[in-house]
Specification:
Helix content is 48%, strand content 13%. It contains 13 helices and 10 strands. A 6-stranded mixed β-sheet has the order 6-7-8-3-9-10, sandwiched between helices. Helix 12 packs across helix 13. The chain starts with a helix and ends in a 7-residue tail after the last helix.
């Protein structure tokens, strides 16, 4: 028991230290340009030396348990053989035992102890494996979201109301009605997904969203603005079912999204993030993502509408060109345009843009804005933007501050209020002749 608890604990520490080493290497190799730009090589080397030193210490502690346990088993083996030689030698001197019988018994004793020695070594390996598997089991034991699965529904890959879907009393389908969105008294904070969440008026509770309520009618273009940390992206994460609110309800076309599978909700939406992720695959696969309802015609049409078809045609293999890791052989603007094509290829009912134009230059941004004017027509659109110049034509603007919607209205209406939006506008357009 001493060996089991001590070895398990030491091997657990070894795995933790290895994870720290891998994380440090991945982070600093990915950010090598930043490390070199700010002359952090020496500090990074010192930090890595400390981390590897901790790993060495943890590994030596694990080796100590093995170095004690395995020799202890060998010592028992040696003591047993010594006892046989001592007792058998005395019997030989008294002519009560032959030398051949003693040698045979020694060989039998060796064969008896050899499996024990092998078992002790395997037991040590088992303790190392159990320490490694604890973290995996901890993830496997986590309870999934209750509506992530689709009991009674065929997994046809098409989300909502596929032709093979089977009605189930516990799972609702989301009928396509145009994309009406409603947030009703939504409260949310990170780190607490339980139903027994603290009440809204509880003290020392850091709510990210506080009693948020608004409605987006089908076809409307809604912009969400606010300072960093105001809760803009959290709204999108809740709508996309990446998180669940502790209080309140979110409706999509008058259906509570918590009663339908997350896959069904997301299949209605096209999402474009600021940080574009492209896979090491062909251009066409990065646009259609293997969705069975998107063919080459839809891919090319989406690329044409966002204006990235010219870039793709100039590639050596066109749409079959393989991209580097995270699209490293494309510029930032080209990657962003590909993400637009990816979102639009499925002809979504809802279009969600999270800082979608912040990573492109002015020329490409102008091209994107022209394309979006046509693409958003007839679609419910949610736009999160720091650049207020990109949302002047929004049907309504929601101004968030510390998790609350403080102001709502059109661009001109909000400017006339002289509140938060006006201050944000002045900060961005100070000294600009078009600031008014």
């Amino acid at each position: 028991m001493w060996f089991k608890s001590g070895a398990r604990r030491s091997y657990r520490q070894v795995r933790i230290k290895i994870a720290r080493i891998n994380s440090f290497l991945q982070e600093h190799v990915s950010g090598m340009s930043v490390v070199q730009l700010y002359n952090r090589e020496r500090r990074a080397r010192a930090e890595f030396r400390d981390i590897t030193g901790d790993y060495r210490t943890a590994n030596l502690r694990a080796i100590f348990y093995y170095a004690v346990y395995f020799p202890a088993v060998e010592l028992v083996n040696a003591l047993g053989l010594a006892l046989i030689v001592w007792y058998g030698g005395g019997q030989i001197l008294r002519d009560a035992l032959s030398l051949g019988a003693l040698v045979a018994f020694l060989q039998l004793a060796r064969r008896f102890y050899q499996p024990l020695a092998d078992l002790s070594e395997k037991y040590n390996i088992l303790q190392s494996a159990m320490a490694s598997s604890e973290r995996v089991f901890r993830l496997l034991d986590r309870e999934p979201h209750p509506v992530e699965s689709e009991p009674g529904t065929a997994d046809d890959g098409r989300g909502i109301e596929g032709p093979d879907s089977v009605a189930d009393p516990g799972v609702q389908a989301v009928p396509v009605r145009g994309g009406r969105i409603e947030f009703r008294n939504v409260w949310f904070r990170y780190g607490d997904m339980d139903a027994d969440a603290p009440p809204p008026d509880a003290e020392n509770v850091d709510w990210v969203l506080k009693d948020v309520s608004f409605t987006v009618e089908p076809g409307q273009r809604i912009a969400i603005v606010g300072a960093t940390g105001a809760g803009k992206s959290t709204l999108i994460n809740l709508l996309m079912r990446f998180y669940r609110p502790q209080r309140g309800t979110i409706f999509l076309d008058d259906i509570d999204i918590s009663t339908v599978p997350a896959r069904a909700v997301r299949s209605r939406m096209g999402l474009v993030l600021q940080d574009v992720y492209l896979f090491s695959d062909t251009v066409v696969r990065n646009i259609d993502l293997g969705r069975p309802d998107i063919g080459p015609r839809e891919v090319e049409e989406a690329a044409r509408r966002v204006g990235v078809d010219g870039y793709i045609d100039r590639l050596p293999d066109g749409y079959d060109q393989r991209l580097g890791e995270r699209g490293s052989n494309l510029s930032a603007g080209e990657r962003q345009l590909l993400s637009f094509a990816r979102a639009l290829a499925g002809n979504p009912d809802l279009l969600i843009l999270d800082e979608a134009t912040s990573a492109v230059d002015s020329e490409i941004e102008a091209r994107i804005e022209l394309a979006l004017e046509a693409l958003m027509m007839g679609r419910t659109s949610l736009v999160i933007a720091h650049r207020l110049s990109t949302i002047r034509n929004a049907d309504r603007i929601l101004v968030m501050h510390h998790g609350e919607i403080r102001e709502t209205g059109t661009h001109e209406e909000l400017l006339s209020l002289g509140g938060l939006y006006t201050r944000l506008h002045r900060l961005q357009f100070a000294g600009s002749p078009s600031a008014a």
